[in-house]
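Justification of resources, computational component.

The compute hours requested in this renewal are based largely on the per-chain cost of generating structure records like the one below. Each record pairs the submitted sequence with a full structure-token output. That output is archived, and it is also reused by downstream analysis tasks.
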Amino acid sequence: MRMPATGSLRPQGNRDDTPDERPVSGCPVQDLLNDHLRVLGPDHPDTLTARASLAYYLGAAGNLDQATAQFRDLVADCLRVLGPDHSSTLITRGNLARWVGEAGQPAQAARQYQDLLDDFLRVLGPEHPHTLTIRYQMAYWQEELRRAD
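The structure output for this chain reads:
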């Protein structure tokens, strides 16, 4: 994914704001999310996808704590709305694990990827490309953890 060419993903406001209340000035993804929330409501699958996009862009812009917090909230909502075996729920869990690792918690990321791998194996099977990607990501964070020791 590419970052937007214009605008800033740096949040305005204080750290006490909830993730949904932190404005992201000039970010087209935030504008899209606002439209989805207004038109489709918070539980529509397209709204959940827009939230995932915003969380991803926040992480890519270096706002790792915000990205992680938003993905945590999003995983809970995906589980509630879509169920544990839905592909969007599984992918969102993978995104959470990635940003947890990027935020300096490789042990937690490796554990999350291990749990996720078990679910991908059960839902998609061992040879599915998504399963192989999760296996790779788990190995990556396990190696990062080994290097840190």
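Helices lie at 28-39, 45-60, 64-81, 87-102, 106-124, 129-148. Residues 1-23 have pLDDT under 50 and may be disordered.
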